[in-house]
Amino acid sequence: MATPKEITDLVARFDRNRDAYRSGQYSETQLRREFRDPFFQALGWDMDNEQGYAETYKDVIHEDQIRVGGATKAPG
Question: Residue 22 has what DSSP assignment?
Fold first, then answer.
């Protein structure tokens, strides 16, 4: 199986801007939105539930909040 063009483009973009991405100013949310989600989407995952499936049948369930010590917090 050949590597999808979208993935080779993501790798090339990361390589071109590696220093900026590794500087500590680049957030986990930015990484997810600009690289991780498009990577899995290129592999055929329905990252945004465009099929409209119920929670149980989604390809991906995004974690908006988690409970830590009785408090609700965003992952980070």
Answer: T
Number of domains into which the chain is organized: 1
**Helix then strand then coil, % of the chain, to nearest 5:** 45, 10, 45
User: How far from 29 is each of 2, 54, 70, CA to CA, in Å?
Assistant: 29, 24, 24
pLDDT of 9 > 90? The answer is yes
Q: So what's the pLDDT on residue 34?
A: 94
**Domain that residue 46 falls in:** 5-73
Cβ–Cβ < 8 Å for 59, 34: no
Question: Is 47 within 8 Å of 41 (Cβ atoms)?
Answer: yes
